[in-house]
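Workshop exercise sheet. Pairs work together: one partner reads the sequence aloud, the other fills in the structure field after running the prediction. Swap roles for the next sheet.
Pair: D.N. / O.F.
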Amino acid sequence: MITTVDANTKTATNQTTRAAETKNLGGLASSNSSPTVHGAPELVRVRDSGAIAAPGGHGERGNGGGMTVEDIEESKKDIILSFLDVEGNYFTVLAYRYTTILSAQLINFWAIVLVVVISFLFLHVRYHITQIIGIFICVGGMGVLLGSDHITGANGGDISRSNQIKGDLFALVGATFYGMSNVAEEFLVSKRPLYEVVGQIGFWGMIINGTQAGIFDRASFRSATWDGAVGGYIVGYTLCLTIFYSLAPIMFRLASAAFFNISLLTGNFWGVVIGIRVFGLQIHWMYPIAFVLIIGGLVIYFVGKKVLGEARKPWLGKNQEGGISGIGTARRRAEGVDTGVIV
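Structure field:
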């Protein structure tokens, strides 16, 4: 793992990782170094927060509550989505064990590229010129942010060449899984109720993640430090990820997987804002510039569409007849109907 350094010279992203190690979250991030352990709690919580907790949940569309051929096909899609999501988390966390944060963040740009390409080729999404400009501005802002990290030395410390290559490959695999899972989730939530998709992700993800942890991380569980501090971190982390997993599908309906991924570029800046209060970090003068560029790029990207923007999905038909009329969808907004039911 990355060694601990002076808080006043590191970004919040670096500092959060080190704080996890020094505050006995090492039971999760250092002594056991289990990437799967990071994903298990929120998957259980997301499963419980969804109205569906088992594959039989699809049966509400069948006769007599039994599963139909359509339900089985939908469950296959859910399993694939859950697998992509779990592996995206796993390999991204694993990458930070071997490579620098600077390299991992640069490679994560691949997720944005992949989302745009997959959406263009398979979902027939066509991007307006202003959206492309917005993406490039956001990437430029992130470049300024990474440059600031490099100047202040917040790039993860000394990493051997062999570990660097291994970590970069893990980061690339993680970004690939993330990009595919985001596009797949956008597609599914445009056609089905939110509670169904989120509940199925949690259910199948819990099984996949648990199986993977049992195979690869048994030693980590045995050597982990389990105390009140670690429990508190797990609870906080789980709550944050529960909110994240619950709101992300709405973002996919209102906008797109591409907008979602470039929005995540603001995460580093917000991490620094929190780090100033929690860890006593000193903000570098380039950070505000980076933040303005990223936010400006997001605004340009989003205003490039018409009134309904990216909420209108090209794969659902001209009048969105192929999609569900639910919260955040273009179909509901076009119909002007509010049933009071959140789907």
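Discussion prompt: The chain is about 70% helix and 0% strand. What would you look at next?
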